[in-house]
Amino acid sequence: MATKKKVQNEETSDVAATDNWKFLFKWLFVIGGIATGAVNALAINPDFTMPSFLIWVSVAIGVIVGLFYFNSDDLINVGLRFMIFSAAARSLPGESEVVAYATAFFMGFAFYLGPIVLVMAIVYFVKKYILSK
């Protein structure tokens, strides 16, 4: 007797493809944030010269992640992350070198979250006020 072939559900392949992209964007977000924070922490050293294109790469990654990874309805939570990192960076006393590097890292991560929050806010307001009509 002939064996029955399994019909692959088209929906499951679409879900798998979406999950793969979400996985890629999640790691792009994490690596971009850590790299931006680390480069900003190194930038307080006077011997370190930061290439100017790194800032634009960080902004571009933030825009891509803001468009494709985060849901614009989650704007408040991502905005709170931005505010928390900014407040943490400003609240640490800069008397020791370790605290200075930690402050610079937090500010770098906040600089990375800025374009993400801005893109999410634009997408949120376009969806709410322009596309809903």
Output the keywords.
mainly alpha; extended; 133 residues
Question: How would you describe the overall organization of this protein?
Answer:
The chain is an all-alpha fold. The protein has one domain. The chain contains four helices and no strands. Helix 1 crosses helix 4. The model has no long low-confidence stretch (mean pLDDT about 85).
Per-chain topology:
Elements (H helix, E strand, L loop, with lengths): L9 H33 L10 H16 L6 H17 L5 H34 L3
Helix pairs in contact: 1-2, 1-4, 2-4, 3-4
Give a short summary of the structure:
By secondary structure, the protein is an all-alpha fold.
Strand content: under 5%
Tally of discrete structural domains: 1
Overall 3D form: extended
Average pLDDT metric: 83
